[in-house]
Amino acid sequence: MSKNAIEVEDLTVxxxxxxxxxxxxxxxxxxxxxxxxxxxxxxxxxxxxxILNLVSTAAGQVKIYGKPSSEQxxxxxxxxxRGSVDWDFPTSVKDxxxxxxYGALGWIKRPGKKEQDMAxxxxxxxxxxxxxxxxxxxxxxxxxxxxxLARALVQDARVYLMDEPFQGVDAxxxxxxxxxxxxxxxxxxxxxxxxxxxxxxxxxxxWTALLNVRLITSGPVEKVFTEENLRLTYGGRVSIxxxxxxxxxxxxxxxxxxx
Length: 259
Fold this sequence. Notes:
six-stranded mixed sheet; about 30% helix; 9 helices
């Protein structure tokens, strides 16, 4: 029986008495690359933050590899939305990446040569080695996103949670990020991504969760990413172009339109 990386049970989160997530049950198997999709205000970012124990919950529990998420921070890497970060903070690209090692080092021990080598190796993976000494405020949006991915990589986590990593990046950066996420999955890591582009879900991911305050469904993309489930999630007419010969409920081609 395969292990589950994340188990969310009866999760409810409310802001000022208004439910943002309602009675969510979600199981994320180990080793999947999963998207969380849904309309604006569906609670996607809140779900990521609840899994990370960054927001207060009204009910329910979250476990990562069978333990409360508060006890598993060292095995979880997090890439927040780029817009939520103070990019004017005066620090270099390499120092930002090395921050990913603080969970392993503790705040007293200073990073040494090993940590610097790990940071440079991670920057090389995301194509940012030449920017190691540059201030983060001097980077483009796509470059900043790559730096945050490198910071998550040096954690050598078992579970990665990413909040819209493709937002505001160019096509080249998006492709580089996709390849990196797929490499993480092949190495046995579990990657959960808040994603807004329905067109690329079947191409990028093998697992998905459809969310609109409540969890509509989750599972393998080829089974649950269907016109009917998307209509339930978005509450409107959903036009899907399938490949020739495919039946309802099978893989969806690139173009998906929610009206």
